[in-house]
User: What shape does this take?
Amino acid sequence: MGIAKKFKGICIALASLTITATALAGCGTNQDAQEAQGSQGSGNQVESASPSKEHITLTVEIFAEDLDYWQKKSQEDAFKKALPNVTLDIQSVKDSNELLKTLKIRQAANELPDLFYMKPDHVLQLKDSLYLWNADDPLVKMNKAVDKLEVNKAGEGKYYGLPMKQFSEWVYYRKSVFSELGLQVPQTWDEFVSVAKAIQDSGKYQGVALGAKDAWTQYPFIGFGPNTFFNDDNTASEAAKTDTPFSPDGNYYKAFEMVEKLYKTGATGKALGIGYSEAGQLFASKKAGMIVIGQYYYPDYVKYGGDIDDVGLFPLPVVNDKSETNRQVTVVDLPFGISKSSKHIEEAKKVLEWYFSQEIYKEYLTERTMSSTINGIEADNIFTTTAKTLNVTPFFIKDGNEDAVKLSNETKWDGNAIGQQMLAGKDFRPIFEDLNKKWTSARKKLGIQ
Amino acid sequence: MNYSLQRKLIIFSFLFIPLALLGVFMLLPTFKLFQFSLTDWDGYSKSFQYIGLDNFKTIFLDSGDVWLSLRNNGYYFIGHLAAIPFEIAVASMLCGAVIGSRFFKSIVFMPYIINGVAVALAFSFFFSPSGGFNAILDALHLSSLKQDWLGDYRVINFTLVFVSLWRYCGQHVVFFIAGIMSIPKEYYEAAEIDGANKFQMFRHITVPGIKTIIELVLFLNVRGVLAAFEIPFLMTNGGPGYESSTFVVYTVKEAFQFSHVGLASALGIMLMFITVVVYILQKKIIRISG
Assistant: This one.
């Protein structure tokens, strides 16, 4: 009896202790959270603080394709010498959509990584959480692309991010296929469509390798077409100023008609059944005569065993008048963002100083066949060499402004998804009619003039 | 402290942590879901506005793609429902004196154990235009049946339902095996003495004996098909357009691609209600049909 009573007493005491401890823990303050909030409130004032000497870990969010490079380089002595007290916690995501999702979720929880990649169209959605770069910052001064990205400008000489690289869009073609079929490099869009069809009609090769199961792979046509075909770098923002941007006289409609010509030839094969990597392999294994994509594909082409002597390059012809100089889209990409609530902004900037150094950055550009955004560091690869031989106008596309982003979200305007429907044999016109109605009411609802 | 008070204190103390966890991780998010469904929150702004039932109005009056996605859930529902008799038959066979039944019992559960991402990727290659399935058709001289299994909107949902069946049927079969094994052998012996054949035994002993398991599988079917996500998301991302989207794929796109967290929350609430309503209807139909 006595033992039972004692046992009960111990149980009660333990239970009471648990509750008390839980309650006290609940009443306690979260110093970290307060510090984080404090630094968020102070915003860019942290910039003036000198880097601390205590050992810190910086969270860095990048694309999976760059993970090996970052991990390898951050383990080398040069990094340890430049940033002896910093360890990088490198996290990676597969693609642009996943990056935006991850960043938005972390932004909502006020837990953005210290340093991270952004796609240009992510900037406006993350701008409230970004550290603002001053124009006189040495890192900004050395970046020649910081001004080329319209959405990157925060006003009053400040910027949201530091563009990490540039690349152009190219048509990769198999020289042997062209010579076997007696084809010439096309000079106009219509010629390009004809060449694609001729290759397809040969019965031996697919005209254009396209992995449209990954909808984004259509961007050289669907994403950029409304700008490049009509020499209009600001289509997206202009669309926000009108009620019916998807009407037959608009850039979107006319561009989709031009792309429809290509898709209807059947030269893109069963594009919806394969993704980016399968399309890449299709071209590398010479089962397709052409692929239209950015410079970043080249390392994959080599990896898939593609013959580097048999690959030729030309910019996608977007003009239909041979006397007009062709335009080639150059994408200023991956502005590095720093979270304004980071406790280690100075260290994050030091990481960028290290990254943009001659030894680290030039090797990256060579390995990934990209073009430079840094003054004094020039890439030396097949694209920079080819570009020197061409008569083409570099074309920079402005991403949509805030109104355009809001309207796109409200109406769920997704050109690549409509492109997929076109490839599935559907007509884009009724979809555009519906979009016009949604766009009109969205402008009214959001009060956009 | 009297005995009654001590008893209450102990009960309360030991229940406190599980209840607190339930509150924090289930009730609070559910409450937040209801709250956000009445707002226009975009998921990242610091503030939002209450807009009443506008999100629900948008879903019912202005979101044709939601209903297209829900229709696609219907394919999964019908597919899995139609597979139940087959699953029971397989379970029944595996419980009988079939050669290698032990081996098949273990192998039938394998697809469920394999990681869903791996399954989706493997089948993506298998059903790609130059993939294994079309190669099999070629080998069988059935090239005329070759399709763009993941690109043609007329067949895409059937392809995805097939993958879903491949992955989840084994789990159901294992449930049915457990149910059949719990039926006393004496019933079958008595039926055999009375001259019942195998089908009659299956119809009048096996099926009524696993009624509870059938109800469980039906409930899992409703819950599972309405929450179908990983297979369409990984294999087609709901495309082309929304042709292979499901309710949850659509919801995720609303929340993260188009920043409509308020609307996505309303869709989440709708999903809860649809699950409950379909389950109740299904139970009533089972009762009526005896």
